Amino acid sequence: MTESSLKRMLDIFDVEPDSVDPTQFSGGSDGGARRVVDGSQILAQSLVAAHKSLPGRAVRSAHALFVSVADPARRLEFTVTPIRVGRSVASATVTARQGTRLCTNTTVLLDDPQPDVIRHDRASRPPIVGPEVAQPARSLALPGREVRIVGVTDIDNPDEVGPPIVDAWLRYDTVPERDELRRALLAHFTGHLGISTSLRPHAGVGTAQAHHTLSTAPMGIGVTFHDPVGWGGWLRYHHESTFAGAGTAYVRGQVCTEDGRLLASFTQDAMIRAFASEGAAIGMPSEARL
User: Fold this and answer.
1) Mean pLDDT of all residues in 268-276
2) Any residues with CB less than 8 A from the CB of 191 and at least 6 apart, and which?
3) pLDDT in tens, 76-128
């Protein structure tokens, strides 16, 4: 098995165009220790596919629905279908498939950034500590990426309880030069801590139980980028779970630089359900383990 790393993830995000059809792309996956592809990886690849199919514009926002599990042992095939292509603004859908199976459907908005008419930045700035005293999250680290979480010793521990807010500091050894890969990299981590944030206030449940006694999966992620999308040093991913119930959870978040500049905003809809006695998730096919 090839070791996960930042370089490998960036290579995976950079989907390969078809030699004939400019709307067709393909790419690999990295499932890590699991035989399942993170939905946020497919979201990142979809952003790059849209950018390559509609060059000259930056991805402004994307909304992905993860409709079926993807196998990391099989290549993903991406199809970009333009909805409307104007002089500065374009929109498209990007579908990701493995054979006849539809895995993800993403709606993407792209534009050519224009000079400011107005500007304000309402980044969330709660009184938090910096990365220098945050706790390392070794389960989320990989070569080329460091992750630290504020006020949390073990984000997966079902007995460690706190408010439904998680601040994570990330630092990458390399920040991509290409704008579309920077956006893909920012989008990738939006799917990693939303469910943990929703479980955190509830004693006795945690992401250590995911796929054992709990069936959990992101069902949808929306991300909006705020220009300019560039940074150096640490990034802060601020997560807040505003609702959990009826087998679902909703999280909203922001990605900020260390000095507080807002780079992106995101939302996540997730499934959190108990397993039925026969091992299938209540109300959801057992294969839905994104």
Assistant:
1) 89
2) 38, 39, 40, 43, 218, 221, 268
3) 999 999 999 998 899 999 999 999 999 999 999 999 988 999 998 887 666 57
Rounded (10°) CA dihedral 36, 13, 50, 176:
150
**Nearest in space to 31 (alpha carbons), one of 68, 2, 11:** 2
CA gap 90, 92 in Å, rounded: 7
3-state secondary structure the chain: CCCCCHHHHHHHHCCEECCCCCCEEEECCCCCCCCCCCHHHHHHHHHHHHHHHCCCCEEEEEEEEECCCCCCCCCEEEEEEEEEECCCEEEEEEEEEECCEEEEEEEEEEECCCCCCCCCCCCCCCCCCCCCCCEECHHHCECCEEEEECCCCCCCCCCCCCCCEEEEEEEECCCCCCHHHHHHHHHHHHHCCHHHHHHCCCCCCCHHHECCCEEEEEEEEEEEECCCCCCCCEEEEEEEEEEEECCEEEEEEEEEECCCCEEEEEEEEEEEEEECCCCCECCCCCCCCC
Tens of pLDDT, residue by residue over 26-57, are 999 998 777 789 999 999 999 999 999 999 99
Check residue 125 and give its pLDDT: 63
